[in-house]
Every structure is written in structure tokens, then in C-alpha cells.
Write a structure and sequence with these properties.
Among the domains are: about 10-70, no CATH class; about 215-270, no CATH class; about 325-405, Sandwich (Immunoglobulin-like). Strand 10 and strand 11 form a beta hairpin. The chain is rod-shaped. The strands form seven sheets. The chain has a three-stranded antiparallel β-sheet, with no helix packed on it. Strands 12-17-14 form a three-stranded antiparallel β-sheet, with no helix packed on it. Strands 13-16-15 form a three-stranded antiparallel β-sheet, with no helix packed on it. It contains two helices and 17 strands. The chain has helices at about 10-20, 30-35, and strands spanning about 40, 40-45, 90, 95-100, 100-105, 105-110, 110-115, 115-120, 220-225, 230-235, 240, 325-330, 335-350, 355-360, 370-375, 380-390, 395-405.
């Protein structure tokens, strides 16, 4: 079998270029068959190929070595790089899509989307950044535009040097530290655990407020102010308990209001509830003993009613208070005359009191007795008991009188 070789006309420029590139021009022209070998749709050039105009390839252009573009390279459709693309700067005016990109210098782009983008330097994006997956960073600075999300923000630390507005549900599992003010207007807060902070709930409405452990018997809430601390808790019967209560406004209790301990209840006024006709109802004080350390005033012509039940008995006892009642003895001599004895009040009366005296024995016919007040500096400091005898007794004796003093 004979193989025919068809020679093609090779321009002189190509021959000249081949000679220059191979350095064979000084030795004479090289045979064309050494530069070009024709096979079926396949050409091999052993030296360099220089094209002074446009090189057009209608199908694929495969380069097994390095591809250099000393000016610019323009690709009208897509660029697919299998093993990675390394560039100093990319200036892209259209969308940039990548499955994975590692950027060490700067990248400028309009819209950017990808499954994974990692950069060790700064990324300046003039437009919007849309990430359908997760954005992970050591820090996020939203600037004056703020941070807006319709999903969930999850992280160990959330720091805001300006105002932080949260309109949706927010879960902070790692804690929240705020150095400025927190505005919970129209907020619904559940499961609030308040530690060592200043809490101002001005105008807030809470359906439930739980402190400490609900099953604990000790008062779990300590409220401190003015150098004192009061413990607040709930008794086993469901009542609010505290060491002491001081209030300038109304305290309304639907059930019993019980105060334990010796602190008692201190108030300027204790009133009964108003009835349907807007008048005060009855106020009842119950106890084995009711103690009053100050003055008891009855306004609006009030009365003191003792036992109101038939067969019951109540007493007014001085209990050793000699300013109210007691005994006073007058030594009566064995001659006719007037004999006296004085009693000095422990606490002077501002007005002259009424004093009633009664002898505990018969003084004798015709004997008289009366009292006169002792006054000093517009204060009534005591009284003088007078006993006058018209007949001289056989022997002198001490006449004893019971007295009752009623202030006016």
C-alpha cells in the first residue's frame, strides 16, 4: 500500500517565522516537512506560533501548559476552572457564582452568590450580600444601616455599641450583658431570671413573677434600700410574706392580711372598706390584747361600746395607772378641822380633768370632803383631797378614798 503525501503551500512568513524561532535561518531554510506534518484534522507545530491578527478557534482550545494573557482576556459565556483560580484582583460588573472561593486579597462585585465563600482579607460589597446558607464570622459590624434578619441570630456573644432593636422572638442562651438602658415596651417576657442588676419595671405588666425555687420554704427575694434588706416570699398557704411593709398608697388584699413577727404594721391611717353607698363599713380588731402606744382619738362623735352581747362583761381597767384611778389616804386628827393630802399626776393634763373621790369607810356624821386642782404653767399637775370634820374623833386615823380621774 502506498501512502500519498499531499503538500500544501506554506506562506513564506510562516517559514520565516519558523526559521527565526528555531535559529535555522543562518544554516539555510528548513524543509517544510520538518515544521508541518499533515494528518487527518490534526496539526503539530514543534516551535512557536505567532499570529499577528486574530486567532479564531470554532471549537475547543485545549492548553496543556500555562495560558498567559498579557493584556486582557474576555470570555463571553462561562469560565470553568477545575483545580482552582488564583488572581490578584477581580473586578466583576455582573453576577459572580462559585461553589467554593478562597480570596486572600480584594474582590469587587455587584451581586455575589455561592455555597461557600472564605476570605482572609477584607470584602467590600457595594450592593447586597445574599447568603442562602450560613454566614460565619469572628465579628459583624452592621454600621449605621443596622442588622435586619427575619430568621434566628445564634451566637455565643452579641455586642452592640449602639441601639439594638429586636422585634421578633429572641433566644439568648449564652446570656445578655447591657451597659445602657433596655426598653421592653410592649414586650412579653417569660422565664425572666433577674440576678444582681438594677431592674426598673416602670409601667410593666406581669402576669406571673417567679423568683427562686417555687418549692423552697425560705423567702427567695431580698429587696435592699436605705441600708436595710427585706425578705419577700410566699407562705405555704399562698400569702405574700415580708419582714415589713411601708407604703404611701393603697394595699388591697382579697384575703387575710397577716403580719408575723414583732415588726407589726405601721401606718398613718387604717380605714374600713367603702360600702355600696360610698360610706365606710365596719372595722374589726381581733386579738387577745390590742395595745395602743399613743393617743386614741374618737372623731365624728364616736362611742365606746363595751360588751354588746347579753350576759357578757367588759371592764375598763387602769392596770396600775394611778393617773386614771387609785387610792389616796388622808390623816384625820383628833380635833375638828380640815385635813388634806395631794396626788401628783405622772403625766400632767392639758385641761382640768374631772376627779371623783369616794371614802371606803364612814367618816362620821357631818364630815365633808372635796378636791381642788393643782395647776402650774397652764398644766394640771395633780389634785388636793380635802376632809373637814365638825366633831373631833376620839383618836386620829387615816381615811382612805378611792378616786377616778377623767380627762376632758
Amino acid at each position: 500500500m502506498r501512502t500519498s503525501l499531499r503538500m500544501v503551500a506554506v506562506p513564506a512568513a510562516v517559514v520565516l517565522a519558523g526559521s527565526v524561532l528555531t535559529g535555522a535561518f543562518a544554516k539555510g531554510p528548513v524543509a517544510v516537512r520538518d515544521l508541518v506534518r499533515q494528518q487527518t484534522k490534526h496539526y503539530t507545530v514543534n516551535g512557536s506560533l505567532q499570529v499577528n491578527d486574530v486567532l479564531k478557534v470554532k471549537k475547543n482550545d485545549s492548553v496543556y501548559g500555562a495560558l498567559y494573557a498579557h493584556d486582557s482576556a474576555q470570555i463571553w459565556k462561562g469560565l470553568l476552572v477545575r483545580n482552582g483560580l488564583k488572581v490578584d484582583t477581580i473586578n466583576n460588573t455582573g453576577p459572580l457564582q462559585a461553589q467554593s472561593a478562597t480570596i486572600t486579597n480584594a474582590i469587587q462585585a455587584g451581586a455575589m452568590s455561592g455555597t461557600s465563600i472564605a476570605t482572609t482579607g477584607d470584602a467590600n460589597i457595594g450592593g447586597s450580600l445574599a447568603a442562602h446558607g450560613k454566614v460565619t464570622a469572628n465579628g459583624v459590624d452592621a454600621g449605621a444601616g443596622g442588622l435586619t434578619t427575619s430568621g434566628t441570630i445564634t451566637g455565643s456573644t452579641l455586642t452592640s455599641n449602639g441601639a439594638l432593636a429586636v422585634t421578633g422572638a429572641t433566644t439568648l442562651s449564652g446570656g445578655l450583658t447591657v451597659s445602657g438602658s433596655v426598653n421592653f415596651s410592649n414586650a412579653n417576657i417569660t422565664g425572666l431570671n433577674v440576678g444582681n442588676i438594677n431592674l426598673n419595671l416602670s409601667g410593666a405588666t406581669a402576669n406571673s413573677f417567679t423568683v427562686g425555687t417555687p418549692s423552697s420554704t425560705a423567702a427567695p427575694l431580698n429587696v435592699s434600700a436605705n441600708g436595710h434588706t427585706a425578705a419577700v416570699g410566699v407562705t405555704s398557704g399562698g400569702a405574700l410574706s415580708t419582714d415589713s411593709i411601708a407604703t404611701n398608697s393603697d394595699v388591697v388584699a382579697g384575703g387575710n392580711f397577716i403580719v408575723h413577727g414583732s415588726g407589726g404594721v405601721t401606718s398613718n391611717l387604717v380605714t374600713a372598706p367603702l360600702g355600696s353607698d360610698n360610706t365606710l363599713g365596719a372595722l374589726t380588731l381581733q386579738g387577745s390584747t390590742v395595745s395602743l402606744n399613743g393617743t386614741l382619738n374618737f372623731n365624728n362623735h364616736g362611742d365606746i361600746n363595751l360588751s354588746q352581747a347579753s350576759g357578757a362583761a367588759s371592764h375598763v381597767n387602769a392596770n396600775g395607772d394611778t393617773d386614771v384611778s387609785g387610792t389616796l389616804a388622808v390623816t384625820i386628827g383628833n380635833s375638828a378641822g380640815t385635813f388634806t393630802n395631794n396626788y401628783t399626776y405622772i403625766k400632767p393634763y392639758a385641761k382640768e380633768p374631772a376627779v371623783t373621790v369616794t371614802p371606803n369607810s364612814d367618816l362620821g356624821a357631818g364630815d365633808r370632803y372635796w378636791v381642788t386642782p393643782i395647776e402650774s404653767n397652764n398644766q394640771y399637775t395633780g389634785f388636793t383631797l380635802h376632809v373637814a370634820t365638825t366633831t373631833a374623833p376620839a383618836n386620829s386615823f387615816n381615811g382612805t378614798f378611792y378616786y377616778v380621774v377623767l380627762g376632758r
